[in-house]
Design brief:
Blueprint lengths: L1 E10 L2 E12 L4 E5 L6 H10 L3 E8 L2 E2 L5 H7 E4 L11 H7 L13 H13 L15 H15 L3 E5 L7 H18 L2 E5 L3 H7 L2 E6 L2 E6 H7 L1 H5 L5 E4 L2 E4 L4
Parallel strand pairs: 3-8, 3-9, 6-7, 7-8
Antiparallel strand pairs: 1-2, 1-4, 4-5, 9-10, 11-12
This protein binds adenosine-5'-triphosphate.
Main location: membrane
InterPro entries: AAA+_ATPase, ABC_transporter-like_ATP-bd, P-loop_NTPase, Siderophore_ABC-ATPase
GO molecular function: ATP binding; ATP hydrolysis activity
Length: 253
């Protein structure tokens, strides 16, 4: 379990978002983080991933303070899919996935048969087989997004944190991929926590939701959140209405 205790996240002394008490994320859950632009979704994800931007409070993984884990231990617990293109663009797709098996390889980094099997499965299930020899730097934004998600799955961690993982995907790939990730969580006992602006997909597919509004973080099941009718308050607009978590656009013709 990831437990955040009395956290305040932000920059310097400026708190962007906070929660008094314990925020706990159990195993086998598909969880979205929502909020308006600049509300603190990415900042919260970074605080969970590395303690970066954690102004106050503590992050515990399996009841042990995150600061007390070694780098290798950390890389077996949490993988991260961020929005930056922070990797070598000259690596092929397969090589990128191979590197993410590093926590499990021996001291010379030699991949075992099991590692190749995990990589082949990911290439297959994320529809990347035909791209495996392409240099990462030559991929479209949407193709790259699928590669980076596959890379996190190959890392095989208990928790995966993702920042807007479907922002570059077409509507088919968005729906397929989110469904695939939800099933992955439930079938493998893993937890994915992802920031998103895809409210309706989050309402339809997630087990739980973290919402950030006016600096306060809340954590609820999707059904409690939908019943509470908070969406209208979080996203006030005369052109957008929410009915049971379904987004409706209203424009005068
Ligand atoms: N490096 C930084 N230094 C100072 N303030 C920052 C920095 N990065 C982000 N911020 C500010 O922190 C706040 C939260 O930013 P964050 O990126 O976490 O929001 P977000 O909810 O992920 O937004 P979006 O939906 O637009 O991606 C914003 O007001 C932003 O301007």
């Amino acid at each position: 379990m990831i437990r955040l205790e009395n956290i305040q996240v932000g920059y310097g002394h400026c708190v962007v978002a906070a929660f008094d008490g314990d925020l706990a994320f159990a195993k086998a859950k598909f969880i979205s983080i929502i909020g308006t632009n600049g509300s603190g979704k990415s900042t919260l994800l970074r605080a969970m991933a590395s303690g970066q931007h954690l102004i106050n409070g503590n992050v515990f993984i399996e009841n042990k303070n995150w600061n007390d884990y070694t780098a290798v231990e950390r890389s077996k617990f949490i993988s991260v899919v961020l929005t930056e293109r922070s990797f070598s663009h000259f690596l092929s797709v397969r090589e990128l996935l191979e590197l993410s098996r590093a926590p499990y390889t021996n001291y010379i980094g030699k991949l075992a048969a099991e590692d190749h099997e995990v990589i082949n499965e990911a290439l297959e299930s994320f529809d990347l087989k035909q791209l495996e020899n392409r240099k990462a730097g030559t991929l479209s934004d949407g193709q790259l997004q699928r590669v980076l998600i596959a890379r996190a799955i190959v890392q095989d961690t208990e928790y995966i944190l993702m920042d807007e993982p479907t922002s570059h995907l077409d509507i088919n790939h968005k729906a397929d991929l989110l469904l695939q990730l939800r099933d992955y969580c439930h079938e493998h006992g893993k937890t994915i926590i992802y920031a998103t602006h895809e409210i309706q997909l989050a309402m339809s597919l997630c087990d739980e939701i973290v919402s950030i509004h006016k600096g306060s973080i809340a954590h609820e099941t999707i059904s409690d959140f939908v019943k509470s009718n908070k969406l209208q308050e979080i996203f006030p607009s005369k052109h957008v209405a929410f009915e049971n978590g379904i987004v409706q656009f209203k424009f005068d013709s």
